[in-house]
Amino acid sequence: MNPRTPLRASLLCVVLAGCNGPEREVRNGTGSVEPGSGGAAGHHNPAPQPACTPGDIRDCSNKIEGDGGAILACVAGTQACGADGQWLPCEASLADLDVGGADQPNGSASGADGESQFQLTSLTAQPCTNNQCDKACAVFPEESGITCEESPTAGGGSVSNLPSGFQNKGLKDAAHPPSTAGCSSPADCQFDHYCDPNACIGSNCGLCKPWATGAYDTNSTKPDYTLKVACDGKIQVCNRGGATAPSGSTITVLSGNSSQLQNDLGKCTDLSGSIVGSCTVPSTIPPGGCIEVNNCSTQLTGTKAAVVNSPAAPGTVHEEVSCANNWSVAHPFSDECQAGYDVRVERYTYSASCAGSQQPRWTLLAYNATLLSNSSGTSSLTVNVEASSNLTDLDPLCTGCTKIAYAPTTDPAICSMGGPSPTCPKQLAVALGTAYAAAHLQLEFRLTPTPDGKLPASLNSWEVSYTCVDDQ
Asked: Which pLDDT tens digit goes with each residue over 155-165?
């Protein structure tokens, strides 16, 4: 294969084929007749002609083909002749492409710990023991699994437990008097809420709604910081923008009397409250993610206001969608934290190695996930991918990665080497384009809990394979 010619694999199909014997019968030299096909007018459909002798056994294979007939994988098996003289299905399961045997030194992998710092693991590629079509096939078998982590503060403090005066100052819409008009801007909705212009009370449209777990503005290209209601001296800072929020932003804590809240909530400049302390966002936050910040505990007691990434406060400020929705409060009435699950993002890099002048080709991805549902919706798994000839060129935040799987919306929770076809397994060449021939691959897994944050998503295992071809 010419390494400069991309593998055409845009259409996945499963082919069951015997190694011997015709698949259709040619009769009288006039063409082929399928079993059950119609004959000439006025004649009964002919009975299927025996294709084999009952009890006969022949070799067969089950293949994964790409567009253009490129065979990516196959498993050999046998096929028996049934009592009706017709060949039974090939007893060769693509699920048997699982690896086995001793590790081989070609290929290595590394994992990211959520902070985008690659951590080397002991995982090495193993030979594909049952891929009869490709003796150079190698697979990285990941079996440790990852899941959304439960957090005792994931839900923050309860907004409904705040005094009505606090609610009304942070949520300015028709549902929170004295306002009778709907919300119209980010400044109207604090406490990790957003303005939904299509939600109405009577003729007044525009209501502040809490962001669902894992949700964010998919149309934005910048981070967008928000704060949940503080609880137990801790506060959850979230990113509702479409780009990863950097670490280091400052959370500023201010005195929280009613007058100050009235003047400051929703403002980006000219803070009137007295600053009583601050703390720092300790890590990056993926789109839709939230993290707990607990180094403000000495300041977040009693009644306080808090703002993150404010241009009007001392400390590091990062560019974002809007600074007007960055406010929240701490109050004794809402000091009990609500537990739940947070979004989890993990990234893994894989390096293929081939002998001599051979070049790597990334081929297939299979995975096994557990996605749970409740009345709020279903947890989900998103898989993104990119490849590069240089390991250092892989984006540690996977900003330019291509989505290859989204379960359960467009893909199944269990996507194995054995199907279901034509969706699974995932053909890496389709997602990577010309980069499918690069030596280094990065996979990003995003696990999102149910919208209410009560049930997790789990990735139990996955496999990624590559092969080596001659450099022509």
From this structure: 999 999 999 88
Per-residue pLDDT tens over the stretch 354-370: 888 888 989 899 999 99
Chain Cα centroid distance, residue 362: 20
pLDDT (average), residues 189-215: 94
For residue 412, say if its preceding peptide bond is cis, omega within 30 degrees of 0.
Answer: no
Q: How confident is the model at residue 203, as a pLDDT?
A: 87
Distance (Å, rounded) from C-alpha 381 to C-alpha 137?
Answer: 27
Residue 383 pairs in a beta bridge with 405, 445
121: which residues sit within 8 A by CB, 6+ positions away?
Answer: 109, 110, 111
Cis check: omega of the bond before 54, within 30 degrees of 0: no
Q: Which two tokens stand for residue 365?
A: 């991805």
Torsion of Cα atoms, 351 then 422 then 402 then 309, to 10°:
-110
By C-alpha distance, which of 296, 174, 167, 180 is closest to 237? 296
Cα 452 to Cα 149: distance, rounded to the nearest angstrom: 14
All residues at 6 or more sequence positions from 71 whose CB lies less than 8 Å from its CB, including other chains: 63, 64, 65, 133, 134
Domain boundaries, the chain: 13-96, 108-149+343-469, 152-341
What is the predicted pLDDT for the residue at 265? 87
- Check: CB of residue 421 under 8 Å from CB of residue 429: no
Overall fold of domain 108-149+343-469: Jelly Rolls (2.60.120)
Residue 376 pLDDT greater than 90, yes or no: yes
Omega before 420 within 30 of 0, i.e. cis: yes
